[in-house]
Specification:
mainly alpha, 77% helix, globular
Length: 526
């Protein structure tokens, strides 16, 4: 679709992006050491951490495809957002104390402390490749959108978005990424909330909106035989992807690793959990409102921009378009920084140049950022050949195929002392072979789309298989491959000189009650 942009809109877009780039370069101008570059000097506070995680999680795929999937199926896909609080609790209160007590910088470094060098080496490459693929996927989704809005060819959208994303990431590192993420998160929340308010006002209130759309659009769980999102896929498959994404994903965890201390990190993740409450209001409701106002859209992914184009004034349209660009930049620069961190600290420093100076590490990180961005452009072009999937399903299906092996290794590594290094090593190798093959077949539609179950169920089946595989191998190699169990959770907390923070637990308890109340409201009352 083509958006009615005028001179005022283009001025807003230009000034917004210019301001964003200046902010990124300014924040990163005094980042001197490699720890400054990769972990923001471990000086991030809870507000920046929370907003940065939220901003990293939001991409043009989120803004556009959430409205699109809501237009087509309703609130069911909101489970990806509201159920995340369970795994944010797991990350903040269980995984993170282990991460921070060992002063790690990357996820492979943690695996090294638990399972030794072979598992770390293979995981470093797996995560590096995963992040590079992820960058390509997000660039593809965002560049398609930018091309539609600005009438640009795909190659121009890709090159421009990649250049902006990589520029201040190369210069400023994590601090620049985190600050710009936080800035963009605030503006995105405000602008999308305004769009929702304008849409509800146009309809005449929430009561009329409820009457104008199908009743099942308000349900969070759909029947087991539903073709789009059956409840077993949500209940069993989503947790696999969520454990990987929220608890072991370098791009997300790196923000918490850059915290001043454990309490600041936990408060930041808790803050993210509360921000997640807003997601249906600002990202999903515009799609449902669009269904009520424009029930005959040919492509559900046009829902968000249909609302923007028809119900916001010029200038505000430019701000929304600028924020869509910023959302793309925010997600991509976060992933680029994480890929750079993994390669530099876990591959270059460990295997290529063990005597690398601080200056060499930083320069290597900057070079890798540029190379990953370059490769991601070609991955994005490859994804252009995938047909028959909306943006939401495309990106989440890619994530679901990346997650089973990492989820299995980290879960057993933290919760079971009997997990052995050989079991972790073989699970990482063998586990990713079927995941990649099945993922390729699924996305290419071979032998046919009807042949495959829902992508979340595929992730669940792979996860169960790998859990059983790792347990069996651990039992068989217990004597020949002794494990290096982690300290207990209490010992991890004790390393910070304080007991578990009761106020943070109270915050999670309140959030849990809010979420339970929301689910009961949507399932039993609406």
């Amino acid at each position: 679709m083509q958006t009615n942009l005028n001179g005022l809109d283009f001025t807003v877009i230009f000034l917004y992006l210019l301001g964003l780039i200046i902010l990124g370069f300014w924040v990163g101008s005094n980042r001197k050491s490699s720890e400054d570059y990769f972990l923001a000097g471990r000086d991030l506070n809870w507000k920046i951490i929370g907003l940065s995680i939220f901003g990293t999680n939001i991409s043009p795929m989120m803004l556009i495809s959430s409205s699109g999937v809501a237009y087509a199926y309703g609130m069911v896909a909101n489970n990806f957002e509201w159920l995340a609080f369970i795994f944010l609790i797991l990350m903040a209160m269980v995984f993170l104390p282990h991460y921070l007590s060992t002063r790690i910088s990357t996820m492979p470094e943690f695996i090294y402390k638990r399972f030794g060098a072979p598992s770390r080496n293979i995981l470093s490459w797996i995560i590096f490749v995963q992040i590079t693929i992820g960058v390509g996927a997000v660039l593809f989704a965002g560049s398609i959108l930018m091309g539609q809005l600005m009438q640009w060819p795909l190659w121009l959208s890709l090159l421009l978005m990649t250049f902006i994303s990589a520029s201040f990431t190369i210069t400023g590192g994590l601090k620049a990424v985190a600050i710009t993420d936080a800035f963009q998160s605030i503006l995105m929340i405000l602008a999308c909330a305004i769009l929702t308010g304008v849409g509800i006002n146009e309809i005449g209130g929430f009561g009329k909106l409820y009457d104008l759309v199908p009743e099942d659009h308000w349900k969070l769980f759909r029947p087991a035989d539903d073709s789009a999102y059956p409840w077993p896929a949500i209940v069993f498959g989503y947790p696999v992807m969520a454990i990987w994404y929220w608890c072991t994903n370098q791009t997300i965890v790196q923000r918490a690793l850059g915290a001043k201390n454990l309490e600041e990190a936990q408060k930041g993740i808790l803050f993210t959990g509360y921000l997640k409450i807003l997601v249906p209001v600002i990202f999903f409701l515009p799609g449902i409102i669009c269904l009520a106002l424009h029930p005959d859209l040919k492509d559900s992914d046009d829902a968000f921009m249909t609302m923007v184009d028809n119900y916001l004034p010029n200038g505000m349209i430019g701000l929304i378009v600028a924020m869509l660009m910023a959302a793309l930049i925010s997600t991509v620069n976060s992933m680029l920084n994480s890929a750079s961190t993994i390669f530099t600290l876990d591959i270059y420093r460990k295997k290529i140049n063990r005597e690398a100076s601080d200056k060499q590490l930083k320069k290597t990180g900057q070079l890798v950022t540029g190379l990953v961005a370059f490769v991601a452009v070609f991955i994005a072009y490859g994804l252009d050949s995938v047909e028959g999937m909306n943006l939401f399903d495309l990106i989440n299906s890619i994530f679901s195929f990346l997650s089973p092996s990492l989820a299995a290794v980290f879960i057993l590594g933290i919760f079971w002392k009997g997990a052995t290094p050989k079991a972790a090593f073989y699970t990482l190798i063998i586990g990713n072979i079927p995941s990649v093959i099945i993922g390729f077949c699924y996305l290419s539609g071979w032998p046919s789309k009807e042949y495959w179950p829902h992508f979340l169920l595929i992730a669940f089946y792979l996860f169960v298989f790998l859990m059983v595989f790792m347990i069996v191998v651990s039992l068989l190699t217990k004597k020949t491959s002794p494990s290096s169990p982690l300290p207990t959770l209490l010992e991890a907390y004790g390393s910070f000189g304080a007991k578990n923070n009761k106020n943070i637990w109270r915050g999670w308890a309140v959030l849990s009650m809010i979420m339970i109340g929301l689910y009961l409201f949507f399932e039993l009352i609406l």
